Amino acid sequence: MRYIPNSPEERQEMLSALGHASVDELFDSIPADIILREPLKTPAALSEVELLERFEAMAAKNTAARRPNFIGAGAYTHYAPTVIDSLLQRSEFFTAYTPYQPEISQGTLQAIFEFQTLVCQLTGMDVANASMYDGSTAMAEAVLMAERVTRRKRVLVSGAVHPEYLHVAETYVAHAGVELVRADFDEATGRTVLAEGALDKTIAAVVVQSPNFFGCVEDLKALADAVHAEGALLVVVVTEGASFGFLRSPGACGADIVVAEGQSFGVPASFGGPYVGLFATREQYARQIPGRLAGIAFDKEGRRGFVLTLATREQHIRREKATSNICTNEGLIALAATIYMTTMGRRGLQEVAAQCAQKAAYARREIAALEGFTLPHSAPTFNEFVVRAPAEAEGLLRRLASEHNVTGGLSLSRYFPGRPNDFLVCVTETNKRAEIDALVNGLREVHSS
Amino acid sequence: MVLKATPHITQNEALVFERSQTGRKGYMLPALDVDETALDDLLPAELRRDDDLEGVPELSEVDVVRHFTRISTWNYNIDLGMYPLGSCTMKYNSRLNEKVARIPGFANLHPLAPVEDSQGALEVMFELQEHLAEITGLPGISLQPAAGAHGEMTGVMMIRAFLDARDGVTEGDKPRRNVMLIPDSAHGTNPASAHLSGFSVKTIRSTSEGLTDLEHLRELCSAGDVAGLMLTNPNTVGIFERNIREICHIIHEAGGLVYMDGANMNALVGVARPGDMGVDVIHLNLHKTFSTPHGGGGPGSGPCCCTAELDPFLPVPRVVREGDRFAFDYERPQSVGRVKAFYGNFGMHLRALAYILTHGNEGLREATEAAVLNARFIAHGLADTYEKPFGSPPMHEVLFTDKRQSRKGVHTLDIAKRLIDYGFHPMTIYFPLIVQGAMLIEPTESVGRAELQQFVDAMKEIAREALEAPDTVLNAPQTTRIGRLDEAAAARKPVLRWKPEAKTTAA
Asked: In this predicted structure, what is the pLDDT of residue A321?
């Protein structure tokens, strides 16, 4: 095996030097009745050429990867500058471990510190951690943190949060003594509504997504005021990171915890992962944050460096009393996001966001002008919006793919069986006008034929 | 002796925020190609950002490349050499696997694209499941968990769901079997995951041999409230729990289930299977045993593998084969639910499958043999120099302590820091917690004989220094950009982000 430096002969010499007659003796401490007597029934080794052929053949079956795409819903297609992947592939980054030995991990630690700062700047918050697995698990951790902070057991979650995020939160709280209560959304506006009496002193937090799952921008300021009046926390979820460049930051609107999916920041769709969860909060809750934190430290000579800090929150010290069980996070993806945010910078993040909003507005107008197609929600949107088709969206989208080579959006029936004609369209800066026009023309033709 | 490392120049580099210059740009987008909409028509002003992203850096592309390249040179990494962190399995990360994960047909695939147009991705997941089932001897698989601790949480939640289905959920003061037994030597994530899943944790003692104390186990089981056991095997002192069948038997007789922490599977692949030992559910760390890169702290991937009995409780959706096509199955009413959006860290699934296919079945066993052999080489080489707390021969990792050196005031932390000066990343230190001054060394199969010998020589040299020139060790490392950092001060007054006005340099 070419990844094993010692040749079979060398290994035999090493075995002999250790006084072993055969390699089997290395496993003498394993009882004979559980030792495998025959080879695993996994395939025999493939050469590099054969291996690449096999994977290329499987990749070729993913025909959706080659079409213009208008699905967002938690994973977004954005321009990723070439330098990101090039820098990620430096051995020093991708083959390093968690920075437990700071003297020889300063590159990783400084990058985490920069990531934490950028997340604070974008979300408008005071403190951010070194990353969570993804947006969905970050939201579940925010729910658990809200319970720790407020000692209240009920959490109101907007029905306009990504359905898969909600499903993950339900799993996480199943045994945590936390009750998730659904807050409705208004069909006309597409925005979350807090029903009369829904908020009281038993509620730990209200969780809303903005832009929400239907693409609608929530009125976070009004929600924050209502939530704070009852002593609860406002948790804001963002699935489309590009929106930070255009929308008022959740922090500026009064959010107490902001969680986000960072995939928009230069990370490929890669069929759902690996992505990176962002987690930010206010200064006073820093010691309740889940996961790792990097902070500034100095050596004896007064030189500045970075260390993992406030570790007494974490599982390796606190065991069952830790703020979370998370250990390995998404370090390399957080680095990708850091390089993205740095490369795009102050101007680029805003330009990408503006282009997303402009192109989505164009697509909205064009689709709304089609006979039979309407936009059911009135609230302002960023780059994603719901379209109501005159027929079942599922069939329409399937024909759009096969006849016009466009993945036209996501049928909402996947999550909301009662909305068979509705589909969610996402437009980013990567969708050329010609693609948008092909989508619009395709919808017209598929519907009229 | 030839030293592995010599000091060399490293460059200082400020934070990106300190480097920023107004007006620099590192990107260019195509011009907007649609008719522009007035800003107020896009979004009312009160919903728009009004801080102009103040503080976010402005850098050229060259600045970005130099910045990240410079700070990268401050990191040790596998490609520089042995990275012997015990329980972390820092093996070679193949470039071929990186290439596979970047094939556009995978990298550009949206997770919500129609299933019929994503068949290749489902095939990858299904095939990986089949191989992991064969390797563990456990047929039910979910690839959804994103890391080891996530897999642990999933596994113990499945135990909770199974017991509730079997015993019924009783309301009231003394509800269900609620005790999760965990050895005192376990990873901290075990009790944290058990707690998150609603269990109360009881600790099992280890014997003087470094094994699970069967008497204590029986005693704890006699209370009748045991839901299960979380066990690492080989355990965290690097020894195979030779009583594993009996341990599983005791737990099963007591009405509980056995969860195995698969962190140390690199000692077992192709040699023995958890399913054959009586284990009910295990998580694997694809970022350890199956070589997906650690990336400076992630991403990982922590698939759960379980018995047929536990299969209905795995997370949804499941990847299934229906004739000659693959599909997602959401209709699993007993499932614990979803633990992550979409289907897991698919990019890691690709790399792990490439690892399995590149090794082949024989290569998988060969890697295990070479990993254990390398650990034995170190155990043998250092036996006269460092205290070995347990007598049994180690599997893939070997545990020593600082007992002899600490008499001279040189402790495990000092030895670890001095190793840096010799060109090695330190071993895992002060874990497991039950062994004072623990040094847990896992070379993996990815180290050649000469470098193993260099490591042994370095450790011996440090032991000599501890006797003859302890200050050299106490003041290590001396070859790095910065010295030991004051972590206590950092935690007392944490500075967790850059701010324009903040004091981020020493007085």
From this structure: 84
Query: Is B42 touching A (CB cutoff 8 A)?
Result: yes
pLDDT: which is higher, B171 or A259: A259
Q: A49 in contact with B at a CB cutoff of 8 Å? A: no
Q: Which of A268, A245, A213, A259 is nearest to A76 (CA)?
A: A268
Q: Which of A71, A62, A268 is closest to B123 using CA atoms?
A: A62
Using CB atoms, pick whichever of A5, A45, A349 lies closest to residue B448.
Answer: A5
**Chain B touched by A117 (CB under 8 Å):** yes
ipTM: 0.98
Residue type present at position A290: P
Do A240 and A382 contact (CB within 8 A), yes or no?
Answer: yes
A25-37: b (≥16 Cβ within 10 Å) or e: ebbeebeeebebe
- Per residue in A307-322, pLDDT tens? 999 988 888 888 888 8
B120/A62 CB distance under 8 A: yes
Does B304 lie at the interface with A, CB-CB under 8 angstroms? no
pTM score? 0.97
Is B14 an 8 Å CB contact of chain A?
no
A245 vs A220: CA distance, rounded Å = 16
What pLDDT, on the 0 to 100 scale, is given for residue B455?
98
Residue A427 contacts B where some CB pair is shorter than 8 Å: no
Of B91, B103, B420, nearest to A59 by CB-CB distance is B103
Average pLDDT of the residues in B182-204: 93
Q: Residue A319: what pLDDT?
A: 83
Helix, strand, coil percentages (3-state) for chain A, rounded to 5, are: 45, 15, 40
Return the DSSP state at A42: S
Q: In sequence order, what DSSP letters do the residues of B118-185 get, joined into one string?
A: -HHHHHHHHHHHHHHHHHHT--EEE----SHHHHHHHHHHHHHHHHHHHH-PPPSSS-S--EEEEETT
Measure CB to CB from residue B27 to each of A15, A172, A348 and give the nearest one: A348
The per-residue pLDDT of chain B, averaged, comes to 95
- The per-residue b/e assignment along A410-426, b for 16 or more CB within 10 angstroms, e otherwise, is bbbbebeeebbbbbbbb
State whether B65 and A83 contact (CB < 8 Å). Answer: yes
Q: What is the mean pLDDT of residues A376-399?
A: 98
- Ramachandran sector of residue A320 (left: φ over 0; alpha: ψ -120 to 50; beta: rest): alpha
Instruction: Using an 8 Å CB-CB cutoff, list chain A residues near B91.
Output: 3
Selection from A148, A253, A151, A159 nearest residue A207 by Cα: A159
The closest of B358, B329, B328, B365 to B135, measured between CA atoms, is B365
- Chain A interface, best mutation among B131, B287, B485, B487, by max A CB count within 10 A: B485
Is B117 within 8 Å of A249 when comparing Cβ atoms? no
- Cβ neighbours of B134 (radius 10 Å): 17
> What HEC string does B371-426 produce?
HHHHHHHHHHHHCCCCECCCCCCCCCCEEEECHHHHCCCCCHHHHHHHHHHCCCCC
A170 or B175, higher pLDDT: A170
Amino acid making up residue A343: T
Residue pair B120/A64 in contact by the 8 Å Cβ criterion? no
List, for residues B128-183, the tens digit of each pLDDT value.
999 999 999 999 999 999 999 999 999 999 999 999 999 987 655 556 799 999 99
User: Position of tokens 């925005």?
Assistant: A191
